[in-house]
Amino acid sequence: MKSKPRVFIVESLRFADEKQDLFEGKIVSQILALSCSPSEYVYLRTKKELEEVMDHFEESGYRYLHFSCHGNSNKLSLTLDDCLLMSWRNVDSVLEKPQGVFLIMSSNE
Predict the structure, then answer these.
(1) Is the C-alpha dihedral spanning 47, 49, 52, 56 positive or negative?
(2) What is the pTM of this model?
(3) pLDDT value, residue 98
(4) What is the number of structural domains in the chain?
């Protein structure tokens, strides 16, 4: 199955960022909507939610997976959990799909 040229946005912020309304991923989703480009936006806080969302992304057939969160080259920082990049249950299998999936990381420490 060929992937759909759509963006699937996953966002997780620190509580202080939430309080300041710094939802960059939501803004990206709104900009895509203004240009008539369908996307899916998911806000999460835990590793368990991330695992479920990764399953949903895989089923969606979307081509672009955009993370908006804190982190570094070794981990993704969610609101309530940290995830080591090498331990993500589904990311490797999703990114190895033959139809091509592109990972976009919008994060800082």
Answers:
(1) negative
(2) 0.83
(3) 45
(4) 1
State how far the Cα of 18 lies from the Cα of 63, in Å rounded to an integer.
28
CATH of the domain at 103: 3.40.50.1460
Closest CA relative to residue 41, chosen from 76, 12, 61: 12
Higher-pLDDT residue of 68, 102: 68
In angstroms, rounded to a whole number, what is the distance separating the alpha carbons of residues 89 and 86?
8
Nearest CA to 43 out of 3, 89, 80, 11 is that of 11
Determine which helix (DSSP H) or strand (DSSP E) holds 80, and give its type and residue range: none
pLDDT, tens only, 29-68: 999 999 999 999 999 999 899 889 988 998 999 999 999 9
Domain coverage including residue 21 = 4-108
Residue type, 13: L
Q: Is 50 helix (H, G, I), strand (E, B) or coil?
A: helix
Phi, psi (deg, nearest 5) at residue 36? 60, 35
